[in-house]
Design brief:
The chain is α/β, with parallel strands linked by helices. 50% of the residues lie in helices and 9% in strands. The chain contains ten helices and five strands. The protein has a five-stranded parallel beta sheet with strand order 2-1-3-4-5, with helices on both faces. Helix 3 links the parallel strand 1 and strand 2. The chain is globular and about 75 Å long. The chain starts with 20 loop residues before the first helix and ends with a helix.
Length: 277
């Protein structure tokens, strides 16, 4: 049976240019409501992937996202948010996009059509069998992604795919297929809409749950976040206050001296224990 791209089927809405702004917004919102339910159906596959990633990362493995166009940009976005949110080195989660960094802002002609370039891009990072490569492709047919996943599997590297189409070629190329079927886009074929929203949700789920399992969150707080602006310093100071009961100025001093909430709390408690002994 021929593979059908559900994500590229005609929109359920016609004559968009004749609609009022209010109608357009309500229609898009109604379509967006379908995304979370589509992601929910893929939770077993996401759980399987996260569980396997955690075991590998505890042995020094990394996560690689790889994609083209919107899919690639979303992978790079999620990877770029890990260091400031969880205080992890940028080498732990890496996003690759067909065409390189130029493609983050500008379309690079034919970049996604080279089935061998993805593996070449991954080799620049000395990829190995402790790592995990997650291919993102709404259509499920992107050669850059499929080729990379096939090459990874040949080298014993765990692979996963995030796609908006069931039984897609990219799913066949992956060890774990996450198929988030959101249906036709509001603007026919515009996968930056529901497909992109769902991809962002899934990437958030993967890395957030992995980081929690890796001990980068305490309670419900980002105790390892980077202190890159006044807002985050204030937030971190209040976390230290919650943990230690210190006055604001002293909590802030401890935070800035040690560089993170976790480090500040651990160092202060260790100092207090030494005093008692």
């Amino acid at each position: 049976m021929a593979f059908v791209k559900i994500s590229e089927q005609p929109s359920l809405y016609s004559d968009l240019e004749k609609k009022s702004v209010g109608e357009i917004l309500r229609d898009i919102n109604n379509e967006d409501k379908k995304v979370a339910f589509a992601v929910e159906k893929a939770l077993p596959q996401i759980e399987q992937l996260v569980t396997r990633i955690v075991g590998r990362m505890k042995r020094g493995g990394r996560i690689f996202y790889i994609g083209a166009g919107t899919s690639g940009r979303l992978g790079v976005l999620d990877a770029s948010e890990i260091p400031p949110t969880f205080g992890m080195d940028p080498s732990w989660v890496i996003g690759l996009i067909a065409g390189g960094d130029t493609a983050l802002r500008n379309a690079v002609e034919n970049a996604e059509d080279d089935e061998h370039q993805g593996w070449k891009d991954l080799q620049k990072f000395n990829i190995n069998d402790k790592d995990t490569v997650i291919g993102i492709a709404a259509s499920g047919t992107t050669p850059y992604v499929i080729g990379a996943l096939n090459d990874c599997r040949e080298h014993g590297i765990l692979t996963a795919a995030i796609t908006s189409n069931p039984d897609a070629p990219v799913s066949e190329a992956a060890d774990i297929a996450i198929e988030m079927v959101v249906g036709p886009e509001y603007v026919t074929g515009s996968s930056r809409m529901k497909s992109g929203t769902g991809q962002k949700m899934i990437c958030n789920m993967i890395t957030t749950s992995v980081m929690i399992q890796m001990g980068r969150v305490k309670g419900n707080k980002m105790v390892n976040m980077q202190l890159t602006n006044a807002k985050l310093v204030d937030r971190g100071t209040r976390m230290v206050i919650d943990e230690l009961g210190l006055p604001y100025d002293e909590a802030k001093r401890q935070l800035l001296m040690h560089g993170s909430v976790k480090a500040a709390v651990d160092a202060y408690r260790e100092g207090e224990t030494l005093k008692e002994n």
